[in-house]
Amino acid sequence: MKKILFIGAGSMAEALIQGWIKQKVFSPQEIYVTNRSDKERLHFLQETYGIHCMFDQAIFRQADLIILAMKPKDAIAAMRELKPKITAQSAILSILAGIGIGTITELLGSRPVARVMPNTSATIGMSASGIAFNNEVSTAQRILFLQLLEAVGSVIEVEEDQLHAVTALSGSGPAYIYYLMEAFERVGTEVGLSKDTVRLLMTQTLAGTAEMLKQSVDEPDVLRKKVTSPGGTTEAGIQALEQYQFNEAIEACIKEAEARSRSLANG
Ligand SMILES: NC(=O)C1=CN([C@@H]2O[C@H](COP(=O)(O)OP(=O)(O)OC[C@H]3O[C@@H](n4cnc5c(N)ncnc54)[C@H](O)[C@@H]3O)[C@@H](O)[C@H]2O)C=CC1
Ligand SMILES: O=C(O)[C@@H]1CCC=N1
Residues in domain Pyrroline-5-carboxylate reductase dimerisation (predicted)? Predict the structure, then answer.
């Protein structure tokens, strides 16, 4: 039986735990989770998923895989605390935004490290993840890491430096879409629909356009123009988006998030 140890028990850790249990990648008995001090949170996770939150410190030395899932701002101190507790054999899967593999091996010693940027859609097995490996990761471990992320969504291998852009786009991406949905629901009710009606219409519209983008040979601009009747409603809506600098807003959103990821790397 494997031993998977989460250091950090927040929303992303829970998304992976829930996804991996649901997809039967790991049994609850194989998952151990700890955090800094929030025992109530740990008990919630134990009660909800049947994982271990109270366990012998020996688990740190027996862990086959350690998942770094604390906040970047807490990561350096957390890894300093962790180093004496673990052996050189444990592989690391880090989901820490911004924190480089070099920093991890500096603090935890040379060992196989996979750096992953998933997103919270891992909860329902639909994460979009980017992954990068250091040279210590064997071919077998690389296959295992990719299988772990494929079990909770799509995964693509990138250069480590590209993970800053991955974080800005798909790591943070769900929040941008939720923010968009909040606006649709706010304005949709102002123009006479119930919140539930807007939720149904717009979740289906988002799902449908996502599937169109996956299945169609057309580029997004071609698909957009197929919706935009000259002088019609869509044209009026797009003109309003241009008037309020939609493209500039999206550019700033992604570039600011990418820059923040790089700043997290510098502590
Ligand atoms: N929330 C998201 O959508 C995503 C988050 N991430 C990354 O996942 C990591 C966790 O993010 P969230 O779950 O959102 O944060 P969170 O704030 O919900 O959870 C952070 C966890 O780390 C624990 N922690 C802090 N210091 C610790 C220490 N010294 N030892 C052990 N545990 C410690 C906290 O107790 C808490 O359980 C971050 O590095 C973030 O960049 C990556 C992809 C998506
Ligand atoms: O907001 C954050 O920093 C984390 C990383 C990507 C999504 N959430």
Answer: 160-264
